[in-house]
Design brief:
6-stranded mixed β-sheet, alpha/beta, 17 strands, 10% strand, 39 helices
Length: 889
Amino acid sequence: MACTSQSALQYIKSARRHLVGELTNLSVIVENLYQQEVLGDEEVSKIQAGTDDYDKTRNILDSVIKKGEDACYELLRIIDMTRKRTLGRPSLPEKKSVTSTETKKFDLHHWISCFSFQEDTQMDTNYLQGPKPCHKYQAKLKSKAHKLSNKFWMVSKKLFEENNKPNLLYTPLVLDTQGKVSPSKIKKTKSKKSKKSRPKKLRTYIPEDKPEISPSDLLKTDKDILLVGKPGIGKTALCHEMLRLWAERENKELDYMFYFDMRETSHITAATSLEDLLFGVFSEPVEGKEEILQDIKKNSDNVTVIFDGITDLSSSSVVQKLVEKDLLPDAKLIITCRLDDDDDDEDFFAGDFLRVEVRGFSERTIKTYLSAMLGEEQKKVLCNLELLTLCHVPMYALMVAACFSSETSEDSPQPCTITDIYIKIVRFCLQMNSKTKTRNLNSFISNKREEILSLAEVAFLATEGKTVNLTELLHEDSCVHSFLKPLVINVEPTKTITRYAFLHYTMQEFFAALWLLKNAEKIKVVFQQCLTEEKKHMKHLIPFMCRLLNEKNPTLIESLIPAQELKNTSTWFFKEVITTFFPRLCDQDETDSEDSRLNVDILFLCQCLYESQCPEACLHFLDKLDYRLDLSGESLDPHHCCAVSYVVTESKERKTWLNLEDAVVSEQGMRRLLGCLKNVQWCDPLPRQLWKIFLLSEEQMDHISLLGFDGNQLHLPVKGERQLFERAVKVMQKITTKVNVCLYWDRATPVCQSLCESLLEALPNISSLSFKRIYRDPGLQDQERCHETLEREEKDLLLDLCLKAALYKGEIFHNVVNMLVSLFSVDTDLNNILLDFYQHIKSKDCLNIIPKVQQLFQSPTYWSINLSERKVSILLEVLKLQSEKKEVL
């Protein structure tokens, strides 16, 4: 290796034989030497006339060496700044060999890093990293990325009035990085069925603020990224923000970024090669197409490809090869995926992906977002819990903001369900695009009935076919098309066709639901389709239909479908939903269903009923369930809680039994549930379940309200996590009045030490103690059973607490014991308790504490004992502790 103290001229001369044949991308070196005026036109022509790379490299080195030290220094700087392309990939470290050290390959990367460059703050580092056509193409890609990002936000701006358009930009999302996913996560064939049983649905609720993972961070990582999340949660917005950041990045590296909306599949599936996909579908180079393509292939580690909304690889062989790394093996892939409720984490994607779950807006971000969009009008949203919880989904937040950005009359009801938001948006868009006054809007919609229902039919057919590409639009009405975006497809070099898609897939589902209500004879067919693997996605139309059938909110539907038709449908619709989607409510046996995992659960039905705002349907549902809502093991987001609370509240005559065992509920969701507790049977195990949710939640829960429901009583198990009991102590210490504590035993569960420690710590804050046993058999839950066993366990707890007090409470031990005895309703006298305590001390091998507690055993003035029930030996031992003789009765 050359000495680092050598001049640039000597440094190049000493490595000449290694540089010849090993330098790559010679055109980059030549172009930079020309730009820095080291080489002239004639010298460049001579180099380019070389017969091969060896000849060209010799000509470069000869020309530079001939020009002296400054030219050689400039060449070394160029090689250093472009080493990634001009020196190729660094070789892996080789194992040392005793016999062949002289044949070790010369490492040019190490060689260039050893040269001592001068510290020159004025040094121009703007070197070309590749051929000029590649840099021009990169500039074109960045320009297109800017346009795509701006167009994405402009589509949303159209939802706002002309004089009230907000400056829509990316708003930070809560992103959860969950590591790599196992194969295979992309469905390669649509017919492939999951072999799992019906899994727990993915539940998300307003996420907590976490250390921020930014789009910039995702761009910097060299891993492939899988962005997952529910519809409208912000995956596409995140992709467009990464596009914008890349386009505005001022680094001098030559890299490429391509974006493909996989919901616009027709032109993507037509691509038969990498060139077709990159240049034909996305952006075609102005010049040097072959040189650019070779640079992309050779330096694929400088390529980022975004596939937004990919679900099926079988439709495009080129996309499949890219995902499977058969093409551009070192390219970075960013893929977004809309997870279906019934899909498992193991059934979607293949490859070594970093899984990032897009969780939407945190509550702090919601308030910031609404404040920026609405100003003082945000209060109308923040005071409505239903709307606030919807806004954790950015798409819903946008819709809510669009609705409230225009002034409404005081008596105009605020939307409270998802469907209401869509109704508002549809009416608002029609009004803006037609410039119709509000009082004339219903007439305008009636006049456009044919066009709207035609669009609704196309939406239904597309939804049924699991696509967003709308075909055969019969009407070119600009107002109706305000819900759509154009998809321009190249069919020939000089010919394009235009297709359309909805701004968001859920808007397509809304229109599909409209058409289905107009064609009510097909509703039962769709219900049955929802029970199949292929058509299960059709269930997302049902909540929309539930709300649209409500006669109290006909602001859109009355202008499209005759009222009598809707009334006829509503007479059977809700009962049919319940009967179809909850097998336990059907007259037929459960065994008749071949694939029960496709059935919709209680929460989905509650959401449908919440959308319907129909008390009669709620009562029918509860009656079928015998007023028993079993939500054990569920993860309840705030919207779920709104739905459950609504259903339960509608039962005025009969209270509902609610089971929340092992359920997860957010703080906002719990606030909503508390509002319906007056309609719930306040009986075991619900109080214990609620307190467990409260105490183990990471959020700040309203314990005051929960205490008020049950006579200032706090419910705890005798065995649980230390955190559960520590937080219970903090709650009791915050309350100004003493708390009644109810303890639950599960079979022969021993009392955990954490409970004992917590009870002693909170003893001054406890007014009373009561005890109950948990019965797993639902038929026995309210029965007082095994009374003797419960008394024995209660007494054992008292003795354990006394022993712990003796060990740790020191001088105040006597007072602590008196307080404990007063709290426990043990059916025995003090003499027997003391004898039991002495026996307990012996059984725990703690006789060394007797001197500390001797005063306690000396407290009785006489001893009254039934010797037929006790060992005389224990009494004699206790009598020996007396300071004076005592009467024994």
